[in-house]
């Protein structure tokens, strides 16, 4: 049997008859960037996540970058985050000239540890950036308390966790701003890059909407007036200069190009109604492994009481990860290693001068984690085959 870590072709086959006519319509429409489908997707996502503003952007990395910029993060600021995540989380902090400060992770959920976070707070700390790693929400109630106590902004990296929740409230809606990715491998993925920012704060929403389109146009003027405390530029026609439109091609703050393609919006809108079923299928697959893997020398992942995990990855811990990975590969089973190097020990962050041993839980995880396929379309035969192979491995 050959079982990939993820087979997007299976999902495509299911959706083909619904999506292909919509894609063709878009190609024929001549509208390729933003537009009504993007607005509709934003409405659908705001409803799904129960949040006031859902703002699509070019990708998850931009979602984090623009969120931190909206909060005003820049040189001299420190942002506390997890060392056990995809590089982009901390990269966005560093890209803005701020300093990523890594706290250690919780050994049970692999998420940023609130107590370790407390010990990293300094007068320069401006924000906390927890990550809902692998789809299990971080302890947002603790992070909200810390942020409130220390007057810090709270931004969530929910790139792997769309649909996850704590007590029924969706991950990505606890902090000031939430960030999501629609990279094709995510639980809700496009056919290309895409991202989302969520917030209940009207001010952040205006600034982010302005920044994703070069700080220009009417929204740019609104963001400018908010940031500078000045009135909006006059919208009445200026008779002395009839060519002057105070919004079109007038830029009010430094932003970027981080728009979502119309085509991606159409695809994501077509996929969103399936998301809960796909997340449920992932949970069923995870439950199958947890019920049936018999060996006692691996640590299986769990879902804390009151939390809903969306199983972006199914991660087990073993001190034989390389040997087990090779054994499974020989049986045709693909596995993943997320993440082999904790961020504080990445070459790109050597200037931060962390040493091995500084964040022991994250370092242990990097040595021990091995991911099994958990995508929704796995068959029972495949799950059985993988389970038996994990149990058949001898160290
Ligand atoms: C935890 C995390 N943060 C950020 C990102 C960045 O998202 P994107 O690849 O859409 O830029 C990803 C996805 O790759 C991720 O998994």
Describe the structure concisely for a colleague.
The chain is α/β, with parallel strands linked by helices.
Provide a descriptive summary of the structure in words.
The protein is α/β, with parallel strands linked by helices. The chain has two domains: 8-213 and 256-273, Aspartate Aminotransferase, domain 2 (3-Layer(aba) Sandwich); 274-392, Alpha-Beta Complex (Aspartate Aminotransferase, domain 1). It contains 13 helices and twelve strands. It has a seven-stranded mixed beta sheet with strand order 1-9-8-5-4-2-3, with helices on both faces. Bound molecules: pyridoxal-5'-phosphate. Residues 59-61, 85-86, 88-89, 131, 157, 159-160, 181, 183, 193, 195 line the site of pyridoxal-5'-phosphate.
Stretches where pLDDT falls below 50 for ≥5 residues? none
Order of the strands making up the biggest sheet: 1-9-8-5-4-2-3
Continuous helix count: 13
Q: What is the alpha-carbon Rg in Å?
A: 22 Å
The CATH architecture assignment of the largest domain turns out to be 3-Layer(aba) Sandwich
What can be said about the biggest beta sheet?
7 strands, mixed
CATH class of the largest domain: Alpha Beta
The CATH superfamily title of the largest domain:
Type I PLP-dependent aspartate aminotransferase-like (Major domain)
The number of domains is 2
Quote the average pLDDT.
96
Ligand types = pyridoxal-5'-phosphate
The fraction of residues assigned to DSSP E strands is 5-15%
- What best-fitting shape do the alpha-carbon axes yield? globular
Helical amount: 25-40%
């Amino acid at each position: 049997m050959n079982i990939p870590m993820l087979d997007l072709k299976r999902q495509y086959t299911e959706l083909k008859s619904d999506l292909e006519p919509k894609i063709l319509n878009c190609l024929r429409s001549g509208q390729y960037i933003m537009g009504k489908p993007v607005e509709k997707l934003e409405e659908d996502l705001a409803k799904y996540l129960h949040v006031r503003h859902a703002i699509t952007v070019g990708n998850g990395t931009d979602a984090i970058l623009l969120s931190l910029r909206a909060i005003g993060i820049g040189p001299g600021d420190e942002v506390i985050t997890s060392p056990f995540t995809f590089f982009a989380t901390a990269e966005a902090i560093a890209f803005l000239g701020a300093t990523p400060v890594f706290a250690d992770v919780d050994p049970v959920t692999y998420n940023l540890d609130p107590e370790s976070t407390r010990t990293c707070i300094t007068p320069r700390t401006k924000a906390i950036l927890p990550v809902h790693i692998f789809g299990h929400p971080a302890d947002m109630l603790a992070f909200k308390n810390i942020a409130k106590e220390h007057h810090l902004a709270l931004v969530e990296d929910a790139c792997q966790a769309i649909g996850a929740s704590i007590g029924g409230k969706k991950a990505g809606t606890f902090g000031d701003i939430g960030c999501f990715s629609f990279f094709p491998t995510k639980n809700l993925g496009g056919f290309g890059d895409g991202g989302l920012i969520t917030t209940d704060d009207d001010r952040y929403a205006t600034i982010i909407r302005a920044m994703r389109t070069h700080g220009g146009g009417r929204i740019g003027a609104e963001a400018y007036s908010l940031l500078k405390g000045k009135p909006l530029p006059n919208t009445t026609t200026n008779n002395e200069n009839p060519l002057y439109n105070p919004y079109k091609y007038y830029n009010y703050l430094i932003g970027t190009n981080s728009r979502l393609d119309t085509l991606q919006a159409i695809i994501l809108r077509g996929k969103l109604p399936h998301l809960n079923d796909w997340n449920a299928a992932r949970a069923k697959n995870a439950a199958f492994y947890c019920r049936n893997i018999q060996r006692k020398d691996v640590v299986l992942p769990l879902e804390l009481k009151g939390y809903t995990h969306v199983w972006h990855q199914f991660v087990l811990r073993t001190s034989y990860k390389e040997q087990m990975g090779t054994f499974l590969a020989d049986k045709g089973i693909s596995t993943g290693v997320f993440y082999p190097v904790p961020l504080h020990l990445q070459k790109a962050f050597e200037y931060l001068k962390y040493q091995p041993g500084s964040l022991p839980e994250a370092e242990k995880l990097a040595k021990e984690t091995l991911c099994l396929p958990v995508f929704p379309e796995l068959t029972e035969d495949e799950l059985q085959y993988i389970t038996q192979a994990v149990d058949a491995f001898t160290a």
